[in-house]
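Key idea: predict the complex, not the pieces.
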Amino acid sequence: MKRILPPLVPFIVITLALEWMVRGGFVPGYLVPAPSAIFRALYDSRDELAAAMAKTSAAAVIGFALSALTGIAIAVLLSSSRAIQKAFYPYAVFFQTVPIIAIAPLLVIWFGYGMKTVIASAFIVSIFPVIANTLTGLLSTDPALRDLFRLYGASAGVTLVKLRFPAALPQILTGLRVASGLAVIGAIVGEFIGGQGLGSVVDVARTQQRVDKVFAAVLLASVLGLALFGLINLISALTLRRWHASEQGA
Amino acid sequence: MITVSKTTASEAGRGVALRLERVRRVFENSLVVIEGMDLRIDAGEFLAILGPSGCGKSTLLRMIARLSAPDAGRIVAEPEQFQTAFVFQDAHLLPWRTTLDNTALPLELMGLDREARYSKARATLAQVGLSEAEARYPAQLSGGMRMRVSLARALVTEPRLLLMDEPFAALDEITRFNLEVQLRDLWQRRGMTVIFVTHSISEAAFLANRAVVMTRRGGKIRLDRRIDLPAGRTNDLRSDPHLGNEMKLLMAAMEEE
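Result:
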C-alpha cells in the first residue's frame, strides 16, 4: 500500500480535476474527454479493447524479448574485441537513429500486414538501449577482478559468466527498463501501419472523432508499458537486492 | 630481547624464490617505469617494497604475478610452477557473492568440486576469524572484514607466493594494526613468500623481514635492508625503540627521493 498510494493520489486528483474542468465547460469535451467518458468507452468497447490489448501485449512482449536476447548477444560479441566494437558499433547506433515511422511501411512490404510487422517495429525501436547499456556494463568490469580471474586461469567464457555478466547486470537491467517502454511505443507505431491491436483502435477511433476511445486505448497502452516496466523492476529487485545500492535502502 | 628473524627450513620449503634480472618495463606512452632492475628474493621471505607514488611498485608486482611481461630481462622463479595469490589495495570482492563464495572463488575457478572448496574456504575463514560472517554479503561487512575476506580468498589456495599491493592503505589505524599482526602470524605459520608493496614506512618496518626502497624514477633500488626485529610481532612492538630505528633508516632513504 505504501508503494501504491503515492502515485494513486495524483491520479485521483488529476482525474477529478479533469472531470470538473470538462463538465464545467473549461475544456471542450471533443478535444479532451471527461474521465467518466473514457471509462465509459473502456466499458462499452471492452471486448474490442481487450482483444486489441491482447494483440498489442503479445507483439510488445515478443518484440521486447527478442531485443533483450539479441541486444545482449550483440553486446557480448561487441565487447569481445576492440576491433569488432570499432567495426560494428556504428551500425548498432542505426537502431537508435532510425525514424521508425518512416520505415514502418517498409516493414509491411517485408513482413505483410499483421503481427510480424508489429513485432519487428517493437524490436527495432527497443534494441539499442539494451546493446548500449549491456556493452557499457561489460566493458566496465573491475580490472583488478579481471586480473584475479586471469591469475587463477579462468577462460574467457568462465570470466564472462562468473564475472563480467553479473557485474554488468545493473546496467543491463537499466537498458531493459528503457527498452520495455520503447517496445510498447514501437508496437503501437507498427500497428498504425500494420493494422491490428491498440494502434489500430486509435487510428480508427481518430477517423471517427471518438476521442474518448482514443484516450481509452492510450490508457491501456500506458498500462501495458507500466506492467512491463514493473516486471523489469521486479526482476531487478530479486537479483540485485542483496548487493547493489540501487535496490538497497530505498 | 630482540632476536633477528630467520627464515626456517620448513618456511623455505613452502615459499618461492625469485630472481629478477635486468628487468625493464616501458608503458605504451614510452615512459620507462622500470629500467634494468636486479633483485633476489629468498624462498619464504617477507619483503616490503617501499617507494614514492608512480615509482613502479605496482608494475613490478604485476610482472611478478605474470599478469604482464617485462619488455626486457627476466624473472626466474624456483620452483617454476607455483600458485600465486594477489591482494589488491581495496578488497575487490564480488558483491553478489557471500563471504564463503567469495573465499571459495579461486578454488572454483581452478575446478575444485563444491564440497572440497567449501571445506577449504571455511577453514581459511576460521583462520582470519570470519567464520561467523560466511553467509553475509560484502555490503554487510565493515572495511576491515572485507579486507580479511580478500586475504582469505588469497590464502585459500595455499599460495607459495603472496603479492600484496597496499592492501591496508584504506583502513583505519586500529584495524590496520590488527590485520598486520594477523598477516604476520599467518605468514609465520604458512611460510609462503610475501611481497608487500606499501607507502607506509611503519607498516614496512613492522611487517617485513627485509625492506627495499625504490627510487622515484627508473625502478632502481635505493636501499635494501634486512629488518632486525623479532620473528613474532605483536602490537607491543610498535612502541619498541628498535622498530623506531628501522623506521628512521627507511625514512632517510625515502626522504632522499
